[in-house]
Amino acid sequence: MKLFKVISARLQGLLRREAVIGDIDEEMRLHLEMVAEENVGRGMSPDEARRAALRSFGNFDKIRERAYEVRGGGVIEASLQDIRYSARLLVKDKGFTAVAVLTLALGIGANTAIFSVVNELLLRPLPYPGAERIVMLWETTPEGGHQNTTSRANFRGWREQSTAFEGMAAFSDQRLSLTGGGEPEEISVQFATPELFRVLGVKPILGRGITQEDDRPGMPEVAVLSHGFWQRRLGGDPRAVGKPIMLNGEPYTVVGVLPAGFEWHIRKRSSTVRPAEIWTVLAMPTEGRVATRGRFLSVVGRLKPGASLEKAEAELKAIAARLELDSPEHNKGFSAEIIPLREQLVGNVRPALLILLGAVGFVLLIACANVANLLLSRAAAREKEIVLRTALGARRIRIVRQLLTESMLLAVLGCLLGLVFAWWGIQALVAISPSDLVNLQGVGLNLPVLALTLIGSILTGIIFGLAPALEATRLNLNDALKEGGKGAGGQGARSNRLRSALVIAEVALALVLLASAGLLVKSFVRLQTVDTGFNTEDVLTMVMRLPDGKYTEHRQIVDFFREATERIGALPGARSAGMVNFLPLYGGPGSATGFIVEGRPVPMPGEEPGTNVRVADPGYFRAMGIPLLRGRNFTDSEATEARHVVLISESLARRHFPGENPIGKRISVEMFEEPVMTEIVGVVGDVRYDSLVDEAEPTVYFPHPELVYPFMTLVIRTTGDPAEMTPSVRRELRAIDPNQPISDVRTMNEVMADTVGRARFNTLLLGLFAGLATLLAAVGIFGVMNYSVTLRTREIGLRMALGAQPGQVLMLILKQGILLTLIGIGIGIGIGIGLTGALAMTRVMSGLLFDVGSTDPATFAAIVLLLTLVSLIACYLPARRATRVDPLIALRYD
Amino acid sequence: MAKQKAEQKADLLQGTLDMLILKAVSLGPLHGYGIIQRISQMSGEMLDVEQGSLYPAVYRIEQQGWVSSEWGVNDTGRRAKFYTLTKAGRARLEAEEASWDRLVLAVAKVRQAT
Known about the structure:
The structure holds two protein chains of two kinds. Chain A is of the alpha+beta class. Helix content of chain A is 54%, strand content 14%. Chain A is built from 29 helices and 21 strands. In chain A, the strands form three sheets. Chain A has a six-stranded mixed barrel with strand order 2-3-8-5-7-6. In chain A, strands 13-14-19-16-18-17 form a six-stranded mixed barrel. Chain A has a four-stranded antiparallel sheet with strand order 12-20-11-21. In chain A, a hairpin with a 7-residue loop joins strand 17 (666-669) and strand 18 (677-684). In chain A, helix 7 (152-161) packs across helix 11 (309-326), helix 16 (396-432) runs antiparallel to helix 17 and helix 27 (806-841) runs antiparallel to helix 28 (857-883). The longest helix of chain A is centred in the middle third of the chain and has 39 residues, at 490-528. The model of chain A is unreliable at 483-491 (pLDDT under 50). By secondary structure, chain B is of the alpha+beta class. Chain B is 60% helix and 14% strand. Chain B contains five helices and three strands. Chain B has helices at 2-8, 17-26, 32-42, 51-64, 87-112; strands spanning 30-31, 67-73, 79-85. Chain B has a three-stranded antiparallel sheet. In chain B, a hairpin with a 5-residue loop joins strand 2 and strand 3. In chain B, helix 2 (17-26) packs across helix 3 (32-42) and helix 2 (17-26) packs across helix 5 (87-112). Chain B starts with a helix and ends with a helix. The model of chain B is unreliable at 1-7 (pLDDT under 50).
C-alpha cells in the first residue's frame, strides 16, 4: 500500500513536473522572504537582508534539484536519461550494435519459428474428439515389414475377437471418375465400413453416415460427401441429400454431408495422393475367395476409455496368432501392431523436428554466448570511461543501471527484429515444407513460445549485461588508473579467459551442428545420385483412368490406350511414348505377389518367392530409358493380344535364375484366378519402384492385354521441355474421347523432387542452422581476437621495436586464435561423436541418414577443415591490424 | 565565522535530523522556517539546521507519510506551507526517541567504564 503511494507520488511528480517544481520554488521563495524580513527587523537594508538570507540558505539550485529528486522525478527521469544516453552510444557504435542485435534476432527468430511449427505438429490436439484413444491397426509381414494393410477376413477376426475397442473400422482409398454436372474429374473416394464415422467421432451436418443396411446386397450405392465437395460440386445445396452423383458411370445416392474441416487420410498405404472427398460402403462379403484374399484394408479403432495401448496390442497379437493357426495359407508369419494416431500422422517427421529443435537450441545458445562476449569485450574496452565516471563521483548503482539499460535496449531491439525474422521464418517453413506434412498451412506465430523466447533473451541481456557492469565497477580505481591503457592486469586476463571459454563453446556447438548438417547433406547427395534405373530427364507423365461403365470389354480398354500412345508418340516433340500401370516412386501395390517357376518343386503355400508386378507396353522401356539387358522387348502383336509373355527385371533373374539363362523359361505369377504359364522373353534393368532408399525389388512386366488395367500412366519422352508438351497431348486425348479425364500431369523430375522433398526440407533447414552457427562463431572469434589485439597493443609494439617482423606478429595472433578454435573443435568432436552415437542409438538420426554412417570420418574431416578455415579468416583481420601497430605510438600510449 | 560558530554549537549527527523535524512538528503545525526556528529554540540555540538541507528531508518525511502538508497563512499574514505530524509520524517519533535514548545510555555507559 505504502509502496503504491510512493510510486504513484513519483509518477504524479513526473507527470506534473512543472507543478511540483513550482510548488517547491514557491515554498523556498516564501522561506527566503521570511528570513529576509527578519533580517530587516534586525536593521539590515532590504538588499543586504535578501543577500544574507540567500547566503544562509545554502546552494539554492542544488537544494532545489535534490528536493525535486525526493519529491518525484528521480528514478523514472534518470531511466529516461539512461535510455537516451544508451541509444546515443549504440547509434555511435553501429558495428557493435548491428552485430549484437542481428545475432539476438537470428537466435530468437529461428527459435520461435521452429518452435511454432513443432508445436503445431507434435503438440496441437488432433481434430478428432478423444483423439488420444484413436489408434491405427496394421499387420506385420513375414519379411519384417510394418504397417501393412490387412484382409477382410483378418479385419473381421480382429473386430469380433478383441475386447479393448469401443469400435473398429476398415477403409480403403480409391480414385473414381466423376461425370455429369460439370468437368469430368477424378475424385478420391474412401470405401469404409459403417463404424468409421463413429470411431472418428464425426457427425454429418446433413443427412446420415453409412449404415449396416447399406452393405446389404441389392441396396443402392450411397455417398457421404465432404463439406468441400458439397460446396464445390453441389454449390452447398441444402437439399443435396437424396440426389444422385455419377461415379465411374454408376449412380450413387447422396445420403449425408460431413462438417467443414473434417479430413481423414492416412497417407501410408493409401493409393490416392489427395484426401477422400466422398465416402461409400466397403463391401464385406462373408463368403468366397474375395473375403480372404487381398490385403488392402487400413484399420482404425477407438480404444475403450481406460484401455491401455499395451494390453490392446497384446490382445491383437494373440488374435493374429489364432488367425495364423486358422488359415496358415494366408496368414503364415503375419502378426499385428497398433500405432497411436498422432504417431501415425506425424511420427515420421518427429525425428527431424526434434533434431531441428536441438539445432535451434544450439543456435540460440551460440547467439547468447556471442552477445555475452560482445558485451564483455565492450565493458572491458570502456573500463577507462567507467573509472573516470566513478572518479568524478558517479555512484556505482548509477553506472550499473546505465550499463544494464544498454544491454536491455540491445535485447529489446533484438527481440523486435527477431519477431520479424520469426514471421518470415514461419512463412518460409510453410512454403518449403513437403506437401505430405499434415496441415502446416494453419501454423501461426505461437504466442506462448514467443513470450518464452523473449523472456529468455531479455534474461540473457540482464545477466550478461549485469556481469560486466558489476565487474567493471568493482575495479579498484587506483589500479585501473595506473594500468590505464595497458589493461594487462588480472581483471583483463580474467574476463579474457571467460571470453575465450565462450568462443571455445561456440566453436564446439557450431561443429556439432555442422557435422549433423554435413551428414544430412551427404545423405541427400547420395539420395539424389542413387541409380534409380531410369532416366528422369525430359519425361512427361500423366494418369488416365477409364470410367468403368464406358469401356466394358478388355479389347476396348487395350485399344483405347494403344491408340493414345500411338497418337502421342507421333506428335512432333515426342521421341517415344509408352505406358505403365504404376510409375516408379508413386506408390502402388507392394512386392509380395507370389510366383512359381515351371519345372521346379512347388513351394509350401505362403512360401513362394515374391515379386513386383507391373503392366507396361514396349514404349515404356524406351521412354523411361530402362535398358534391355537380354532377350527382346515385347513385340507389337504382344502389345495387342495376350500371347503369355513377360519381361523380368535383372534382380529377379539374378536371384531366381543364378547362372542360368532365364530367356525361354516359364513362370506362373499369382495374378489370375486360374494359373497361367508365361514365357520370359527378355531381361530389363532394375528400377526402384518403392522408394529411393530401398534396393530395387524383383519385378515382372506383363504386356497390357495380358493383365488389363482400366487406368494407366502415360510416359512420354520429349525432345524439348516436357512441360510444354502438355497442351498438345491433351488435344490428342480429347480427340479420342472428349469426356476422358487426365490427372497428375507431372514431369518425371517433379515426381523425383516430391520423393526427396522431405529429405531436402530437413537438409535445407539443418544446413541453414549450421551456416548460421558458423557465422556466429566466426563473429565470436573475431570479437575476441580483435579485443585481444587491443589489449596487447603495448606488447606488440615492444616486440616490433625489438625487431619482430610483421609476419611474426601475424603468426602470433593467428596462433592464439587457432588454438581457441582447435580446442573448440576437439570438444566439439567429442560432443558430436557422443551425440550422434546417442542419436543413432535412439534411431533419431539414422532414420534421416541414407548410406552414410553417423560418424562418417570424411564428413567430420571436411567440417574440421571448414571451421579452421573460417576461424583463420575471422582471426586474419585483427591479426593484420596487429601488424600495423606503430611501436612509437604503442609505447607512448600511457 | 562559520568556524567560530561550530566551536560553540553541537554538530548534527547523521540521521537525527528526521527525529528533530518530527519532534518540532509534534507540538503543532509549522512551516519550514518555523521548524528550523523551533529546533534552534528547543536546543537552547545549540543546534542549527542548515536551512536548505531542511527541505529535501521534510519532503522525504512527507513521502513516508509521517507528516502532511497544507498551504496556509502565518501570524504575520504571509503565505506558507504548514506541516502537521500524522499518526504514523507520532509512532515513528516515539520509536526514534526510544532508540536514541538507548544509544545515549549505551554511549554514556561506555564512557563511564574505567
